[in-house]
Amino acid sequence: MSAVPEKGAPAPHQNPSPVLEVRNLRVEFPSRRGTLVAVDGISFAIAPGEVLGVVGESGAGKSLTGTAIIGLLEPPGRIAGGEILFEGERIDLLREERMRRIRGRRIGAIFQDPLTSLNPLYTVGAQLVETIRTHLPVGIADARARAIALLREVGIPAPEARIDHYPHQFSGGMRQRVVIALALCAEPRLVIADEPTTALDVSIQAQIIQLLKKLARERGTAIMLITHDMGVIAETADRVAVLYAGRIAEIGPVREIVGNARHPYTVGLMGAIPKIGAGAGKRRARLVQIEGSMPRLNAMPAGCAFHPRCAKCFARCTRERPEARPIGPNLAACWLYE
Amino acid sequence: MLAFVLRRIAQAVLVMLAVGLIAFSLFRFVGDPVLFMLGQDATPEDRARITRLLGLDQPFYVQYAQFVGRALQGNFGLSLRQAQPVSKLIAERLPATLELSLVAALLALVGGVSMGVYTALRRNSWLAQMMLAVSLVGVSLPTFLIGILLILVFAVLLGWLPSFGRGDTVALGWWSTGLLTASGLKSLILPAITLGLFQMTLIQRLVRSEMLEVLRTDYIKFARARGLTDRAVHFGHALRNTLVPVITITGLQLGAIIAFAIITETVFQWPGMGLLFIQAVGFADVPVMAAYLCLIALFFVVINLMVDLLYYAVDPRLRIDRSIAAG
């Protein structure tokens, strides 16, 4: 909510102490036929209490960025460059055991599918107590009391009874609340929410989004909200990072991104959102679609990765790759504004 | 839950009746028992007397009912060859087979699960690769060959372990055990390995593939994201989720171990039921064969029933209740 005002200053951002700062992150997958670069020089920062939306098509590197931050890249994927600073401390070089103590304790994570995020063989209480006792020096009784309080906080009715239920006894929305409670067990400073609403009904989505916003507001938790749903972003995020083919196309305050995008890709992305009743029937704008599809990692075009699909492409775009530079309150990687 | 158990028990009873029918019809297919007992030269009066005495003049279904009734009391008649009650012969041999089978099964389960977990968690280590290679041998070599090879190496060439028999046994009531004497234990090693090796490699491969499957699931990823220790993730969360298929296969394999003990018992001249059965087949000793058949079927049915009940203990999703998903 604190919505750090973006000025024209270069990245990284000007908040005195961001919770998370990612500098030039590069994630690679070595393979027999050469190295695939899935995340290529991404930089951003998240302030306490701020919700950073991360959007992009499937395969743009959104989830990988989140996974890299919590140190759970599946081999052979690896961080090949850049830095990840969490509360001022570099965490990308930490050994597994120290990283494990940060995961769940100081950085919480929420994944896409609440139906499969919980172990079906244990009660939600057992999973909560296990997580709490992994990170905090409390006894079983205290952990259980805390678990009940958490369930209540995330809006589960009758938590005293529900705590002893198994995941399959909860509906999808309730399960996602349990997942959020699990992510909050040890009061993390940062929550990485990877598509937290994608698997849910629209009416439930709104509730979960409200819950996340409340979290950021009341606890000052920073939230990295990964999604491909621009509606969710528009409603929740303070700032938005638009990813394309492993790079940041544009990053800026949510109002600027949604209403006044600079990068042609962002413009296209915003045009693809259906607006009900927009203009009250004056003109029924057709949904804009971006022709073509995102390049595959092993067939990245020269120059700007977006140029084959870009309507405003010119000669330079095919030769040189644009770096993100301040354009108005945003940072955008595009030669148009040179 | 109770309805489920009752239904399963009813099914088990049906299976046993069917097996009983097959065992019973053995008597008819193998030939005329009266002829067997009296020989070619008996008088018609003697034949009629014996036929009546054995109840063979009764209609088929009455005979079957009598067979079932006697079988329920453990009475399978007299062995044709040894002229002793079949139940007594079986009771003498049962401990040997059960001890061998249970030790083999334990070996298969403990070895199979631990090697399966290891090969899944340390996929690329040389030890895991070696275990996989060895397990391929275990899966593909026939039991008798493994037995003979083991005898060759450990009994003949090295002379460490006896090649046949059960060693000294100690009687505990009617149960004679070889587990309490040194020679009994030494005699048990080779047959138990022979009998358990195939199942061990099977369980190892099953646990490995299930474990790899489970390790890819979202709840394992989420468990890691919650910062749980590797130990908790691997053994508390992953292993338990692999157990349902493992229990199924292990249960079936335990039955198979008891049944296939025949081969191992023959190779090692192990004085168990399997050897008794092979000898009975040689002499067309139908009562022994029928009793063996029924007993093995009983083992299978009981084990399957226990497996079904174990599912309930392991997987809460099967415990259907009425308070599903409020909200």
Structure description:
The complex is a heterodimer of chains A (338) and B (327). Chain A has twelve helices and twelve strands. With 338 residues, chain A is α/β, with parallel strands linked by helices. Chain A has two domains: 239 residues, 3-Layer(aba) Sandwich (Rossmann fold); 78 residues, no CATH class. An eight-stranded mixed beta sheet of chain A has the order 6-7-8-3-9-10-12-11, sandwiched between helices. In chain A, a hairpin with a 2-residue loop joins strand 11 and strand 12. The longest helix of chain A is centred in the middle third of the chain and has 18 residues. Chain A is globular and about 65 Å long. The relative contact order of chain A is 0.15. By secondary structure, chain B is mostly helical. Chain B has a domain of 205 residues: Orthogonal Bundle (MetI-like fold), CATH 1.10.3720. Helix content of chain B is 75%, strand content 2%. Chain B has a two-stranded antiparallel sheet with strand order 1-2. The longest helix of chain B has 39 residues. Chains A and B meet through helix 2, helix 4 and helix 7 of A and helix 9 and helix 10 of B.
Strand content of chain A: 15-25%
Segments of chain A where pLDDT lies below 50 for 5+ residues? 1-15
- Rg of chain A: 21 Å
Query: Strand order within the widest sheet of chain B?
Result: 1-2
